[in-house]
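Re: [ENG-882] Designed sequences occasionally contain unexpected residues at chain ends

Forwarding the minimal case from QA. Structure tokens:
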């Protein structure tokens, strides 16, 4: 049965030095983070700016703050069908494998490309591109002992439990894992509790043991199906059913990371999150 450690996404706290950033996250009551250097750290405009000196400063800040790096957030577009664009994104990911290892991060993490970014490409084509990208990234991760996790998102290339299972089965790497954002499985047509429970059954039984981190955010849908963000308390997400599934997993410890965190609301958000632990 899994236990949980509560954390937050780093770039919701703004751009700071790594010491200031981790101090702020820890001061808000979170114990771990998803760190995306290009979104959260002053002076980092590209992955080329993630220097050994910056990594060393990050490790020092981890020790000082007690906030661990649950996910090294590597935001890359793994589902680009355009080969030149796809290879450039893979190169970015490969450049960060040694960084994740040096940080002793729980995993590297990426989404799988919003379909709106390439509107003339079919989802099948995007998934084939995703598989090509992962087949190039995972051997390097295996060599360096780094886990690489992909996240299912309703409107991305990898968009359903079925798609996740296909990717895991096709790549078949022991270092390929999953970030589980309960909200990202839910669309307007499957937002009922019964429909969500069927999703959680698939996630838990098909690849629950491959989940390496959990995201936690609030969302709902307008009558026309438009997605919008909410406070956690107002969300349509079936957290209770989702955490019944997560608690039954064999992982001894899972980080649960608040997305879209508002530091001033951290205490009430943490209390709400922990109510499902």
């Amino acid at each position: 049965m899994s236990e949980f450690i509560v954390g937050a996404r780093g770039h919701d706290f703004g751009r700071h030095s790594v010491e200031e950033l981790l101090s702020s996250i820890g001061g808000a009551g979170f114990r771990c983070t998803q760190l995306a250097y290009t979104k959260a750290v002053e002076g980092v405009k590209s992955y080329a700016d993630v220097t050994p000196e910056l990594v060393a400063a990050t490790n020092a800040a981890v020790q000082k703050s007690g906030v661990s790096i649950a996910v090294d957030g590597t935001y890359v577009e793994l589902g680009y069908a355009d080969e030149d664009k796809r290879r450039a994104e893979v190169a970015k990911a490969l450049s960060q494998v040694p960084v994740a290892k040096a940080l002793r991060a729980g995993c590297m993490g990426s989404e799988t490309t919003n379909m709106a970014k390439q509107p003339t490409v079919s989802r099948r084509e995007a998934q084939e591109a995703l598989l090509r990208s992962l087949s190039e990234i995972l051997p390097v991760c295996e060599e360096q002992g780094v886990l690489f996790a992909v996240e299912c998102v309703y409107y991305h290339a990898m968009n359903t439990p079925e798609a996740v299972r296909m990717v895991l089965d096709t790549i078949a790497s022991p270092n390929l894992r999953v970030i589980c954002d309960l909200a990202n499985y839910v669309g307007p047509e499957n937002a009922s509790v019964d429909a969500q429970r069927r999703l959680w059954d698939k996630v838990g039984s098909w690849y629950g043991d491959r989940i390496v981190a959990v995201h936690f955010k609030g969302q709902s849908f307008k009558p026309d199906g438009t997605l919008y963000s909410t406070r956690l308390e107002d969300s349509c997400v079936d957290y209770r059913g989702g955490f019944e599934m997560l608690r039954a997993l064999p992982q001894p410890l899972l980080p649960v990371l608040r997305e879209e965190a508002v530091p001033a609301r951290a205490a009430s958000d943490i209390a709400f999150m922990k109510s499902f632990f």
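QA comment: On inspection the terminal residues look reasonable. The two ends are 11 Å apart (CA to CA). Proposing we downgrade this to a documentation issue.
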